Amino acid sequence: MKRRSLIKGTLASAGLACSYAGLAATGNRQRRNIASFSTDEVKIFREAVLDMQSKSAADPESWNYLAAVHRYGPYPSNAEAQKYQHPDVLKTIDFDALAKVPAEERAKYWRACIHHDHPATSHFLSWHRLYLWHFETALLAATDIAAARLGLPRSISGVPYWDYYASPRLPDAFRIPLISGRPNPLYVPYRNHAINAGTKGVITADLDAFRMGDMLNQPIIIDGETRRGFSGALEKPVHDDVHSEIGGLMTNQNNASWDPVFWLHHANIDRLWTIWQQRTSATPDTSITPEWRRKTFTFKINAAGALFEGSAGNTADGKSLAPNIVTYDSLVLPPKTPPTPLPKAPPVIAVASSLSPMKNGTNALTSDVRKVGVTNSGGTITLNVPSANRSRLGTLGNKSTSRAGAKDLTWAAVVLEGISITAQGQRDGFVYHVYMNLPATHIPDADPDMYKIGALSSLSLSCIDPEICTSGKANARFVITEKLVKIMNDKKAPNSIDVSLVRMTAKGPDGKLVPPEPSSALLEITSIRLEGSNDPIM
Q1: Were 257 and a residue from 31, 70, 238, 298 both cysteine, which residue would form a disulfide, CB within 3.0 to 4.6 Å?
Q2: Which among 339, 527, 361 has a CA at the least distance from the CA of 450?
Q3: Is the pLDDT of residue 399 over 80?
């Protein structure tokens, strides 16, 4: 029996839902490294993508429909989208066509992805696993058709993955603009030009969190309450950084799933999760909350209205977290990467000039830096602490319990307000590590965690909801209470705080670091300041 017929038989008639536990009945699937694909298999995959892209956006098995399930800007027309989107996005996404799909259906099945902006963030991995399986069903049907048309064997049995730990450079099949004079559907010109050219690869973060963390017993938010459960430690920084370094469509959740490399990236994220599951499979999921397991997600399968409903947890074996329903050709954990060395502080690009007003009961402890543009090379912003606020700052870390109205501060944070990504930043993508009081000279063997307070990536800063974010600006807050207390153990409250943004550099094909290229600003920040409060600790 053909794979497609088997799938239809399993999913039954229109309107019926297929449970996650029964998916194994739809046939064996193996996801292979794209590097192992033969020339013929790349050709079949490319033709299948082209076929899916040519289908009507109203077809649940089309590229446009499946991409919109993840996320898209709900613009009523291309003309409206132009107000918010980079012009190159409109060369890939036809919002006029998407708008023709009934509004009720769009509201029910589209814009469903779960990321760090979503209230159910603990389901990042489980939702994307089900989504990937759903997309794969349509892709395999398309590869069967393409293989038959080309007179080639049907040898693709799953979405390929890109192992960027082994090969950080974008696979060759995605970097060729034309194939026999025709546009290559795997090539997206709106990416970082160095990534497309193959002169640099993506950043690959270390996976210590996966090796060492008890991800089954992390604080998670379910229905507004903090409980113990599963934490998607792969989302930050691994997932976000790869998105952000590729640039273009991949820098924004609204557009990312239209870039074909999106699917290879998420297949690799799922593969890494599978590796983690195998390493911890001997331990029952006793700490996972029933609410996490019972969470279900529904996808529309075809025009007839058949549905696929999957749950985050499958209790069939009593211990596996959403056990994978496919196999991978390799489940080898990437080698441990050396920690990011402490960089030198980049030059000062802005100094505070005026004191911010108090906001929402929180004190602005430093002068406010305004209108800062950050380029590839990054920069340092100096925040001056007025003398009147130094004594206040010195109360951080007091052991006495602070109450409402007390002067002692319970927390302090660096706040970046009104962050916008420029057109250059959208195309290039970026990952900046954010440091406090970074030394101006190199210190061998220094611990970066003594200075690092967070990170900014183009994906995490993308404004994904035009209805509530028409300005296209984001905010970031980095709590630095412990680091400030350590500083003040050595001396009194500082006269100033330096905040440095250092862009992470990737490696070229030769394994050497690729220095950032000079450019215009990649992001612009409206306001930067240090805040403190006696409110409960954040």
Answers
A1: 70
A2: 339
A3: no
